[in-house]
Amino acid sequence: MRATCQNMVYELAKQDERVIFIGSDLSPDLLPGMKRDMPDRYYMEGITEANVIGMAAGLAMEGYVPYVNTIATFITRRCYEQVAVDLCLHNLPVRLIGNGGGLVYAPLGPTHLAIDDIAIMRALPNMTVVAACDAPEMTRFMRQSVDWPLPIYIRLAKGGDPVVSREDRGFTIGKAIVMRQARAARPVVLMATGVMTTNCLAAAERLAADGIDASVVHFHTVKPLDIAAALHHAAQASLVVTVEEGTKIGGFGSAVTDALVEKLGQALPRLVRLGLPDEFPHHYGSQNDLWDYYGLMPQQIAASVERAIAKPVLVA
Fold it and tell me: How many CB atoms sit inside 10 A of residue 27's CB?
């Protein structure tokens, strides 16, 4: 997914002279074709994230569409004020590409784990937040990103992720995609973003083997959230489960919950949010190791659904 996103910047630049790439202390061999063919639109800056955002803002004010790329924790936390004031306040079409969203950099520990990127970026006015589920979907998103009028935060997974998206399902920024449609009248609905959608699809298969019918709805765009889709599926559900590779405070699950509570009121279905707790991860290993620790592997998602179904509903 990471290579696909970066390579698409070069492909877009071939078609649109407004497109510029700005890297922050990435590999000097990154996008060699663009570096060779478009030296006036390829910049590799140092570890100066705040300055890079200011540079991108200035270029956007001159009519360019900058794609800025570095590690997710650096492009969100280190330059948050510049993102807010330089980009969002002026509503500039800058695309922030965050490498290693969520728990990708598990071997490097808490300083590199982007557990709060979705939460803090969606809090900014005018900011769009996108987390594709695989490389082909990233390609479809990137094609639409050039002319999107707002700033965008693009969360990248580690690469080599299983392909679960399909061209025939289409792609539109801000529109959720039904990846698995349950047949039951009152199904379980799994709502997810990014690569957690892949884990939810696997969890739904495990649930089906146990006689539990589950839909899976993929919200590749966390902001603007497809509220209509969330309401439609929640209104028919016996249980809604949100799944995210990030903090539950202010993240994707919070976005869904806010919408459902405000719009459905007393008709709100039972709701379970799966994600990371209010703590810095201090465990090391692979991304899968941390998924397992936090209950985000497919079999654990399925088990959480089954526990929620078995839990009696308390009536006041």
Answer: 9
